[in-house]
Amino acid sequence: MCGDQGSDLPRTGVQQQWIEGPGKVITVPRNGFFRRCTVVVEGSLLLCLLPWPGRAPNGSATLENQQQSSGSLRAAQSAVEQGNPEEAIGMLLNYLQTHPEDSRARLALGQAYARVGQIGRAKEEFQTVLKTAPDNYVALAALGEIYERTGQPERAEPLLGHAVKASHGVPQIRMEWAVVLAHLHEYQKAQTALWGLLPPNDREEKIEFYRLKASVALGLGNAVAAASAMEKALILKPDDEELTLATAAAQLQSSNWQRAADLTKPVFAKTHDPAPGMILLEAQLGAGADFQPTLDLLRSNASNTPEELEIRQRLAELLVSHNEFSESIEDFRKAVELDPGRADLLFNLALAQFRGGRLDDALASAQKSMELGDSADLEDLVGDIQEARGDNLAAVKAYQAAVAFAPDEEKYRLSLALELIRHKSFDAAKAVLQQAEGLHLDSWRIHFALGMVEYFTGNEEEASRILLHAAELSPEPPLALKYVGDIQMDRAAGPDPMVLSQLCKYADLHPKEATMQYYCGALLFKRDYASEDKVSMPDILRRLNAAATRLPNDPWPHCELGKAYRWLEQWHAALRESEVCARLDPDSAQAHYRLGQIYHHEGQPERAKQEMSLYEAASKRVADENARRDETMKTFLFTIQKQTPDH
């Protein structure tokens, strides 16, 4: 009785879909168990759930009533199978005139109404049952199914959840509940609903079971589990191209590039369809394989077709996502030719040309886009292009224009300020950032940049204060705290007690943050060394050793440990850490000088002499303060631009 009866609902798949994220390709099956079990309406669970004589859901009946009801249901079913659902409705209505309390017949009538499209009457029948039997899981499930099939999953979900509970977990209802939960992106609940369910016996149902498992896994961010579930589905129907592409898409999202390519290559070779071609292209891009033949074929097949613009856009975006900026230019240019009135296509072409190093072309494309309509984003891009071309004045004017277009948006003011910082116009940058600060009180980026401007102008105390506040606002406090630590390490007067307390407090709250353990330990040592106080040395050594363990390729924890052990006259440990320090930072004059002293103490004059020679050579290479600040500025600009959205 519960075989595959087909469905009026379209099957979902990956045709004409692109890989965009969880649930976008491995779609939730719409024709699941409810669609494959039928009594008087195609696509219903009713007879799979409706018991035969001897038991009624959530109620009881006499043997005579059960026999009459079963006969009426069988007759109604026979009418449906012969293509006469209206006859079934008449039979059930006649029966219910004398047996109005028969919930099984009323449920069957509701399903018959649904069959002929009388959804309102179907709902009335199910709701009538629920008025007298609110835990009737068949009525709950059937009503939930109606809501789900009419595009109201938010109304279907509580009904199906109630049905699952009332039925003590009937597998078909759990499955349908999971489908609805997945449509609502309630993936964790959907996973719970599916927990412990065994795959059904029917092949098509089993395939949809695995597809649902894959969709839920992908929604939870487990691409590997999603790919595994899709592979199980594909085993059941290996010649199904749509299923093959869905499996390839899952493998693509789990970064199993070769498997995705192996699945799609024969399909694309046979069909030349862009969907498998796109998956194959992305797999080849991800694997670092030769993608040019696939790209050329996709371009050739798209030429002079109604879909060429869409395909060219997708090709360009795919190439850009894998940093193939220069290669993407051809597709963006062709898209512009196909629709020259679209400013967004010209913008994307300019951006690709800029990222591909073709600066004059990028500027020309951006200016053409401006003719169609200027914007803050476009002016911001022109600022980037002009900066790369070496025209600082034009860049500043463009960034100012971007701010004028969108005065309330943080990123444009930040672009202008960073351009001014890059060319050491610190007073102007400070004015821009202070104005931005008034508009964006909670912007950690604005405070971060403002703190660095204070540092670049020599106001270290104010810089530390502002950077600490930026760290409080930032989702990643160490980005700003690192600069606070560097500023305090460079202070001739020793670390500021308040700042030191804040850094160590953060380190204590985040014991696995090795960099913060280093700064706290190193600054405590710097403070105590100046005052000749060794009381805190166990804590200092603990922090520095923890940092050295977690940062094995970073010289600074080892360098500080070398200093600390030497002060404590623990010469063997001092030698060990100082050797690591000098090896990891061979240009450090301090490291070679300290190592020379330790070798001298250890009675190794030749090695001491060698280290002193290295010290003298390194001393000549020591950068002056301005050079050090310039290097810090480069690092800061890279860090903040990386953290700026849409930059």
Description:
By secondary structure, the chain is mainly α. The protein has a domain at 33-197: Tetratricopeptide repeat domain (Serine Threonine Protein Phosphatase 5, Tetratricopeptide repeat, Alpha Horseshoe). It has 35 helices and no strands. α21 packs antiparallel against α22 and α24 (426-439) runs antiparallel to α25 (444-456). The longest helix has 19 residues, at 63-81. Mean pLDDT is 87; it is low at 1-63.
CATH superfamily placement of the domain at 33-197: Tetratricopeptide repeat domain
Tell me what portion of residues adopts beta-strand conformation: under 5%
The whole-angstrom Rg is: 35 Å
Please tell me what the overall shape is: elongated
- CA(first)-CA(last) distance: 60 Å
Q: Helicity, in percent? A: over 70%
Quick one: biggest sheet?
Answer: none
Please tell me the CATH architecture of the domain at 33-197 by its name: Alpha Horseshoe
As residue ranges, the low-confidence spans are 1-63
What is the β-strand count? 0
Helix-strand blueprint:
Blueprint: H1 33-36, H2 46-49, H3 63-81, H4 85-98, H5 103-115, H6 119-132, H7 137-149, H8 153-166, H9 171-183, H10 187-194, H11 203-219, H12 223-236, H13 241-253, H14 257-271, H15 274-287, H16 292-302, H17 308-321, H18 325-338, H19 343-355, H20 359-372, H21 376-389, H22 392-405, H23 410-422, H24 426-439, H25 444-456, H26 460-473, H27 478-490, H28 497-509, H29 514-531, H30 537-550, H31 555-567, H32 571-584, H33 589-601, H34 605-620, H35 625-642
